[in-house]
Amino acid sequence: MRIAVIGAAGNVGSRVVAEALRRGHEVTALTPAHLDAADPEAVSRVVAGHDLGVGVTRPLPGQEDTALDVTRALLDAHAAAGVRFVMVGGAGSLRVPDAPDRLVADDRRWVPAEIADLARSGADQLDACRAHPDADWTYVTPSALMEPGLRTGSYRVGHDDLLVDGSGRSYVSMEDMAVAVVDEIEQPAHRRTRFTVATA
């Protein structure tokens, strides 16, 4: 498959690129030096002819309000190009298991106050996906804690609730996050919906 990865220089984006290449896919790795992700016409031109685009963008501190505009631009661009789109978002949009009326972004047990705005942007991104009339999207969210780690190739899948293990930990390695993203690319199971993953 031909896959465009927008945000390829980041922690997760670089791992998605590596995982896709490992499996023999053709990857176009795009960074801010190559492309303004907030420009839908530019993105549409670049992703045209690909089988799928992956958005792994993250706003800079203090610019959390740009996440929604970038997400909308990416959705518009992929819809215009007729290309499927997988967005890697944040765990802040998930529900807290023991308080289902509360988002992870609003629960200080999971998200420190200093990154709450960033976490809330994930909920805005998901809302933008759900509201888009034309894009063929999938929204993938990690666990509360995502760090560099082992590529086990094994993970649990959930939907709208944060995945927590028996010890109260919510964790996925960046490597297993990339595995889950490329698995979804190869075997679509969550079109126009969201799923979340945790290392098994």
UniProtKB/TrEMBL annotation:
Example of a GO MF term: oxidoreductase activity, acting on the CH-NH group of donors, NAD or NADP as acceptor
Pfam families: NAD_binding_10 (PF13460)
Domain NAD(P)-binding as annotated: residue spans: 7-188
Protein name: NAD(P)-binding domain-containing protein
Record InterPro entries: NAD(P)-bd_dom, NAD(P)-bd_dom_sf, Polyketide_Oxido-like
SUPFAM superfamilies linked: NAD(P)-binding Rossmann-fold domains
